[in-house]
Amino acid sequence: MEMQKINVVGTSGSGKSTFSQKLAKTLNYPYLEMDAIYWQPNWQESSDEEFMAALNSELAQPNWVLDGNYNRTISVKWAEVDTVIWIDYSFPRTVFQAVKRAIKRSLSGTELWAGTGNIETFQKCFFSRDSIILWTLSTFKSNRKRYQAMFADPQYQHINFIRLTSPKKAQGFINQHIQQQQQTA
């Protein structure tokens, strides 16, 4: 089965963005980041209507790699998806990656999504109720349960589900597709 429309999911900090970007580049598909679609300037959230309209517009392309969870969007993003890749690394690894990313982003002050002015600060990452690290800690277990249930749910039997449980397996998946691209070139 050839992958055309791919959603990469996983807990915040799991490495889905890094993986998604590599996969999109390998397949020569557009990379779509749900956070970039959702977040407006000054950390303002899009309304559901705005978010769903923007997401529908982005997903109108013939192929893509979509990075992100946003469970309320499943009816939209999985309507035509053919593959869902779950980045499901261990809890310690995911937390380590989330902390490392938070420190890196806090120190760099890099804008997360072009034109939004949104940056992560040390205060926001480590001493706020909106902390991405707290979010990772509090959602890891529930995300795992939810994706296990979804992978087994008959209403999603049309989707090719792939679970990658280590960076080595994720890189192997990318390498496999690089080899396939080279063989067809």
From TrEMBL:
Gene3D superfamilies: P-loop containing nucleotide triphosphate hydrolases. It comes from the Bacteria. The keyword Magnesium does not apply. InterPro entries: Cytidylate_Kinase-2 (IPR052922), P-loop_NTPase (IPR027417). Keywords: Kinase, Transferase. It comes from Photobacterium jeanii. This is Adenylate kinase. One of its GO terms (molecular function) is kinase activity.
